[in-house]
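Reply to dn_fold:

You asked what the input looked like. This is it:
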Amino acid sequence: MSVSVRAAALVAALGLAPLAGLAEGLPPETEARIAEELGATDYFDFVWLPSPKGDEALAVVFFPIPGAAGNFDSASGLFAVSGGKTTLEGQPILFGTEPREARFLADRIELVTTMPRPDDPRCCPTGSAHWVIDRQTMDVTKK
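and this is what came back:
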C-alpha cells in the first residue's frame, strides 16, 4: 500500500493499525487503482470484503482530511469482480471504522462497523452498528 509520511504519522498518532483486507488478495497496484477510483489517493487503510463467490466485493478506504487535525474520512464502493478485473457498480455512504462481517444477499448487503457509544471519546469508539445497503439504490440504513 502506498502510504505517505503524513498518513503514516496520522495512523501512529491515532493509534490505528492497518486492517486486514486487500493486502491478502490483490496486487498493491490494484488496491491503489480502486482507492483512486473512490477518490482517495493519499489513504492509510484499505479494506476489501469479497463475497463468498468472489464475484463482487465491497471496498472501504480511509484517508486523512487535509488540515483537519488528525481527522479522517472514508469512501466505499461495491465492485463486480470478473476475470481479475473490477468494475465499480455503486458508492454507498458508510459510517464507522473496521468494516466487517459482510453478507451479500440477493436484495441487499449487510455489514458491521465500529461506532462510538455516547460516552466514548472520539479517538476510541467501542460500539458497533449493523448497516444494510440496498442493491438497487445504494442507500444505507442502520438496522
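The longest helix spans residues 5-14.
Hope that clears it up.
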